[in-house]
Amino acid sequence: MVKKIFIVIILGFFAVMLLPLAKDFTPFQELSPLAKKYVEDSPEELGAANIVTSVIVTYRGLDTLGEVAVLFIAAAGVGFFLRREGKNAKTAKRGSSQILQSGTAFLFPLILVFGVYIFLHGHLTPGGGFQGGVVIASGMVLLLLSSVSTKINENVLHLVESLSGASYIAIGILGLVLAAGFLDNRFLDLGEFGTLLSAGAIPLIYSFIGLKVGAELVGIIDNMQKDQS
Amino acid sequence: MTTVIIAVLGAIMIAAAVLAIVQKSLLSAVIAAGAISLLASLLYIVLAAPDVAMTEAAIGSGLTTIVFLFALNKIRKEDKHG
């Protein structure tokens, strides 16, 4: 009883705190000066049709590097805590249903291609490295669910993850040396606006982020699945 | 029109959230929590944020649900042994 009263008091506290936000909300009539600058200047400055991408990858590239680092630490933590010495290879689980197996055989390649499409076209269409990587990881989850005996080669995962992470940093430093600053995309030719090979180094950067995020998330799921014993 | 869609989606999300809390079966609670994320990603599309919607749909309703299910499975196994 005391616990319930306590919960109600805390909920009431949140309501009092958040109500003014909802009550006094008026939609913005115009963009703030910073947003205006991004919207007006970024297509000419960076050559990316997707303004969200040019903010995430270039203007706020250092924040993205932080996000990638956070995800890396999370994946490393999961791998550290779930590490098992003896590989328990005995998987006497019952297989999945025929529907799931046939569906996965059909859908898995499509999901993989869609994930690659999302991060390659990050500078043109909504989405980017993180979204593409996550879509690839969800395809791998489908594969793991449909056949219990699927083995994912950890060495390949680790190789992809470390190579793409190192290349991401290397591109950032190339931007620092050859262009205006860390993670500047303009050391490569900006190309024709709106085509696949445009926006300088943004497609490269997003491909590496996509591969890294995908490999990390697949690694987390793989570790958890091995831990099921 | 947009307001109506947002209100309906919000109402279903709140219903799913309540369901996730009062549900006796943990499996159903996990599924209900995943449904909240799926509806949230629809809401983001209505609010013109497809980037966020993609992430929410894949992480929130896909991977998080799977991680919860793995954890649930492990708890059950340890309950049986202990």
Task: Output the keywords.
heterodimer; A: 229 residues; mainly alpha; globular; B: 82 residues; 3 helices; 90% helix
SSE layout:
The complex is a heterodimer of chains A (229) and B (82).
Chain A (H helix, E strand, L loop, with lengths): L1 H22 L9 H14 L4 H9 L1 H21 L16 H23 L8 H18 L7 H25 L23 H25 L3
Chain B lengths: L1 H21 L3 H21 L3 H32 L1
Helix pairs in contact in B: 1-2, 2-3
Would you mind describing this structure in some detail?
The complex is a heterodimer of chains A (229) and B (82). By secondary structure, chain A is mainly alpha-helical. In chain A, 69% of the residues lie in helices and 0% in strands. Chain A contains 8 helices and no strands. The relative contact order of chain A is 0.16. Chain B has 82 residues and is an all-alpha fold. Chain B is built from 3 helices and no strands. The longest helix of chain B has 32 residues, at 50-81. At the A-B interface, helix 6 and helix 8 of A face helix 3 of B.
Global Rg of chain A: 22 Å
Count all strands of chain A and give the number. Answer: 0
Q: Which range best describes the helical content of chain B: under 10%, 10-25%, 25-40%, 40-55%, 55-70% or over 70%?
A: over 70%
- Return residue spans of chain A where pLDDT drops below 50 for at least 5 consecutive residues: none
* Count of individual helical segments of chain B: 3
Give me the oligomer status. Answer: heterodimer
Percent in strands of chain A:
under 5%
Order of helices and strands of chain B: HHH
Give me a quick take on this structure.
The complex is a heterodimer of chains A (229) and B (82). Chain A has 229 residues and is an all-alpha fold.
